[in-house]
Structures are given as structure tokens and as C-alpha cells.
Amino acid sequence: MNGFTILRSVQHYVGKIRTIRNEIRTQRFMNELPLSIRKDIGWPDMYASGRRNDN
User: Fold this and answer.
1) Mean of the per-residue pLDDT values of the chain
2) Beta carbons within 10 angstroms of residue 43's beta carbon
3) Scanning 1, 7, 37, 44, which has its CA 20 to 30 A from the CA of 26?
């Protein structure tokens, strides 16, 4: 394993962490919206159904 491979592995890991943090931040923001707005955009129903298909 050379240095370049290790660097790519670390970058991939950091990218995954960044993605997870962004998803958590978005979920918190969406959950703070008023109920009427959340219903209009289909939160969390639309999000939850999309997440189930990704796994």
C-alpha cells in the first residue's frame, strides 16, 4: 500500500463523514420547520421512503 492509496482511502472516509453530517444537519433543519410546511413538502414521509430504497 503506497502513500497515494492511503490518501485516497482517507479522502473517501472523510467524504462519507461529511455526507453523513450534512444529512443530519438537513434532517434537523427540516424537523424545525412548522408542521404545515413539512406536510406540504412531504417531510419525513417522502424522505423515509427514498432512504429505504437506497439500502
Assistant:
1) 84
2) 16
3) 7
Name the one residue in this structure whose C-alpha cell is 406540504.
40
What b/e readout covers 6-34, taking b as 16+ CB neighbours within 10 angstroms? eeeeeeeeeeeeeeeeeeeeeeeeeeeee
Count of other CB atoms within 10 angstroms of residue 40: 10
The single-letter code of the amino acid at 7 is L
The set of cell numbers assigned to 52 is 429505504
Q: Is the overall model pTM greater than 0.90, yes or no?
A: no
CA distance 55 to 25: 20
How far apart CA 20 and CA 17 sit, in angstroms, is 5
Question: Is pLDDT of 48 > 70?
Answer: no
